[in-house]
Amino acid sequence: MKSKSKNKNPKANADFEFLDRTSRRVEFLYEDPWRVFRIQSDLIQSVETMARSLEDRERVVAVFGSSRKSAADQYCEQAREVCRQLGSKGFAIITGGGPGIMEAANRGAQEGDGLSIGMNIHLHHEQKPNPYLDAQHECMYFFVRKMMFAKYAHGFVIFPGGYGTMDELFEALTL
User: How far is Cα 63 from Cα 68, in angstroms, rounded to an integer?
Assistant: First the structure.
């Protein structure tokens, strides 16, 4: 393959050819068979975040609810108060780490001096981590995120939400 570079230096052309070849060889990592390793990596990083954050805590509650509610919404106010009380009793709170009810729950946990954890999800132009997180991880896959809730939570508090909330609820109910 001839280099497209107009550089007259043969060594520079060889370098460009090598780099061009290398970038093409990495594309295989994004093919389906290699997805297994990306999933495994997401799972390992998520478990590591949770294990380091929780440090063998036995009182952990996951909170599910709408990301679209404003802080003034009655359900956000309830989530904040419930999690403030749980936090003051030593419970750690795990949410999706985004806005709405998740943010209210994380805020309440911190106000009650409880541990506040967010398991966010990587979505372009969607939710960002809320400012009330003591620890957070951004999952690449929804099922890894739901697995963290199911594995580490000893209880669940569910507030109104949409399809995402229902998905999390039914995942917890079926395990």
Answer: 15
Q: In angstroms, what CA-CA distances link 124 with 15, 131, 140? A: 34, 19, 11
Residues near 76 by Cβ (< 8 Å), separated by ≥ 6?
A: 69, 70, 100, 101, 103, 104
Sign of CA dihedral 155, 75, 136, 53: negative
Q: What is the pTM of this model?
A: 0.81
What domains sit in the chain, N to C, each tagged with a CATH number?
32-174 (3.40.50.450)
List CB contacts of 150: < 8 A, sequence separation 6 or more.
171, 172, 175
Q: Is 30 helix (H, G, I), strand (E, B) or coil?
A: helix
What confidence tens digit (pLDDT) does each residue in 36-90 have?
Answer: 999 999 999 999 999 999 987 889 999 999 999 999 999 999 999 999 999 999 9
Structure tokens at 75: 């359900």
Question: 71: how many CB neighbours lie within 10 A of its CB?
Answer: 13
